[in-house]
Amino acid sequence: MSNKEQHKLEHPMDDLLRMDRIPHIWCPGCGLGSDVAAFADGLKKAEVNFDKVAVVSGIGCTGRVAGYIKLDSYHTTHGRAIPFATGIKLANRDLTVFVFSGDGDLFAIGGNHLIHAARRNLDINVICVNNFIYGMTGGQNAPTTPLGAYSSTAPFGNYEAPFNLVGITAAAGANYVARWTTVQARRLSQSIATAAKKKGFCFIEVVSPCATVFARKNKGGTGLDLMKEFRNRTVIDHKADPTQIPLTMDDEIVCGEFVNREDPTFWENVQNGIKDQVEKNADWEKIQSEKNKRLYKKTLKYEGSRDIG
Amino acid sequence: MIKKSKLRGEFFMQGDIACAEGAIAAGCRFFGGYPITPASEIAERMAYRLPLVDGAFIQYEDEIASMAGIIGASWAGAKPMTATSGPGISLMNENIGLGMMMETPCVVINVQRGSPSTGLPTSWGQADMMQARWGSHGDYGSISLSPNSPQEFFDLTIVAFNYAEKYRLPVFVVTDAVVGHMTEKVVIPPVEELDIIDRKYTNKKPADYRPYDPDDDLIPPFAKAGDGYRYHSTGLTHDERGYPVMSEECQRRCAKRLVDKIKKNADDIIITEEHDIEDADVVVVSYGISSRTVIPAMEKAKEKGVKVGFLRLVTVWPFPEKRIRELSKKVKGFVVAELNLGQVVLEVERCAAKHAETKLVGHPGGGMHKMDDIVNAILEVANE
């Protein structure tokens, strides 16, 4: 305990991490530690009130993030983090809501929720850690596994074309779309700070190393080797068309802030829609009562009243 | 924004609309749903009502999202509701389990239709009763209320919110297409006459708060997102701090309390309605819309000289075991009338097994019981 306490005083992320849950469950060489650090850093940069930030995760390796972050945090069901977060945001519009989950969770089982949340331009922020594989369950194929890559359910190489996450999200209507790798920790945290402040649906893909399963199946070396590879393959191009930059096994990883627009959010549209209605319906209650009374009298003539049960 | 309070007075109102008005009266300020016959009118009414009382309505992409959404809204402090029919409940069951595990107050309306699968979308049935009890995987106590009129649909929606808030779980109102679509007199009392219960919030400081530390009533006090408690909640087996712990001991504590909190409070939760039960030889057990066929059947059986009573289950789950056991020692037998091929009858049989006979008057749905079928069953049991 005293060691832990000492640690507590020293670490700059202490106020945002649950130190009583450390050590975490992630493997050596995993990118999630750095991704979480970038998240904490991003929140600090954004200077938001930490008491008003909620984090929601789904299931999987990245799904465990909520459990380590010392904010109001919810670890939900597989794929359902986004609709859960939507409920939080709409019930308390003062909160800043982040979804922190993985590629399988958000784009396979939760894919429908993601595109609809982007379409509605809900004011929530989604951080998607893309490690190209299902890590927690032992290395099965993901909707992001590059063509030809090996996984435990693609023993002869993956024959399914993967999703391009930034392309889908941009097309579905998000206000902000960015992609970084774990290597660009500072740019990533800046992106997270931007998302925290920005209205509308913000999506950040974080290409992240999975040393234990993805690298092993694909002879990618250690976590550090993958980080080096990411660094060498990364090209930063903010003007790139997000629909034209899929991720493959060998090509360049195009990173940047691809979409940054100011479309009205779901809630702004709701407010616009009801602006006139509120006044028009000022007498709503009275009108309804009158209408119902008339209707009720009319039917009583035919029905009579009868008590049942 | 102008806050429209609830309606009051006498109305000629459809069941589904009465349900929505009951929700508004109970303080519901979040609705997430997906269109489905015969429950869509509830969503339509909420879409109209909620924005005018500063609430939020969202039509989700499916029922899975709807259920996840109302749980999220509840954690942000809203009283939330969703409404659907059997096929929707099948999809919601995933997150109903999450709601049970996270102990989240919310209300789920099931306007039953003919089933299984797509079944009879515009027609009725009562074959989702066991699904309401056991639908999601795992052990948990659950509450289902079954109204038999638009008036009761209004009243029980309020009761469902009260139970959800008090016992911290998703509470079902399991009705059917007849009650949902029928239009009858509904009396909405003034707001001060309604008994509205709100969840118990913690009075501890954030540093001392443990989100799953129950009080003596087995219910942990609540803290909502944004209040500075910065707690964790998970669908994994968790300890009092809300942290996942993968041990047998923790699983026992965690799962057992979910069952015990309902068992222990069953007397408070169970509502039944009894007619002529004291000197009855035969007791008819029924609930929801089928209970309305029982009343005339009872009268007819009485004309034939049978002493018959009626036990209507307003609360179906938790099942009123105690009352059935008591009655089984006094009566010859039970007749269970329900619009399925034998679900709640299994519970009556279980509780009455040693002492009294149980007879099912089943019906696959899509129509109502013929009154004579119930009368004949009563006579058969009486004459055995």
Structure description:
The complex is a heterodimer of chains A (309) and B (384). Chain A is α/β, with parallel strands linked by helices and 309 residues long. Chain A folds into two domains: 2-263, Thiamin diphosphate (ThDP)-binding fold, Pyr/PP domains (Rossmann fold), CATH 3.40.50; 269-303. Chain A has helices spanning 2-10, 32-46, 65-68, 81-91, 103-109, 111-120, 165-172, 185-197, 211-217, 223-233, 266-280, 284-303; strands at residues 53-57, 72-75, 96-102, 125-130, 133-134, 140-141, 176-181, 202-207, 234-236, 253-260. Chain A starts with a helix and ends in a 6-residue tail after the last helix. Mean pLDDT of chain A is 91; it is low at 300-309. Chain B is an alpha/beta fold and 384 residues long. Chain B has three domains: 9-193, Thiamin diphosphate (ThDP)-binding fold, Pyr/PP domains (Rossmann fold), CATH 3.40.50; 206-267, no CATH class; 272-383, Rossmann fold, CATH 3.40.50.920. Helix content of chain B is 38%, strand content 20%. In chain B, α10 links the parallel β11 and β12. In chain B, α3 (63-75) runs parallel beside α4 and α11 (321-328) crosses α12 (344-352). Chain B is globular and about 70 Å long. The chains are: A alpha/beta (309), B alpha/beta (384). Chains A and B meet through β2, α4, α6, α11 and α12 of A and β1, β2, α3, α4 and β9 of B.
Question: What attributes characterize this protein structure?
Answer:
heterodimer; A: 309 residues; alpha/beta; 2 domains; 8-stranded mixed beta sheet; 12 helices; 10 strands; 16% strand; disordered C terminus; B: 384 residues; Rossmann fold; 3 domains
Helix and strand arrangement:
The complex is a heterodimer of chains A (309) and B (384).
Chain A: H1 2-10, H2 32-46, E1 53-57, H3 65-68, E2 72-75, H4 81-91, E3 96-102, H5 103-109, H6 111-120, E4 125-130, E5 133-134, E6 140-141, H7 165-172, E7 176-181, H8 185-197, E8 202-207, H9 211-217, H10 223-233, E9 234-236, E10 253-260, H11 266-280, H12 284-303
Parallel strand pairs in A: 1-2, 1-3, 3-4, 4-8, 7-8, 9-10
Antiparallel strand pairs in A: 5-6, 7-10
Helix pairs in contact in A: 2-8, 5-6, 6-7
Chain B: E1 9-14, H1 15-26, E2 28-33, H2 40-49, E3 56-59, H3 63-75, E4 79-84, H4 86-102, E5 106-112, H5 129-134, E6 143-145, H6 150-167, E7 170-176, H7 177-181, E8 183-188, E9 232-234, H8 248-264, H9 266-269, E10 272-275, E11 282-286, H10 291-303, E12 308-313, E13 315-317, H11 321-328, E14 333-337, H12 344-352, E15 357-361, H13 371-383
Parallel strand pairs in B: 2-3, 2-4, 4-5, 5-7, 6-7, 11-12, 11-14, 14-15
Antiparallel strand pairs in B: 1-8, 6-13, 10-12
Helix pairs in contact in B: 1-2, 1-6, 3-4, 10-13, 11-12
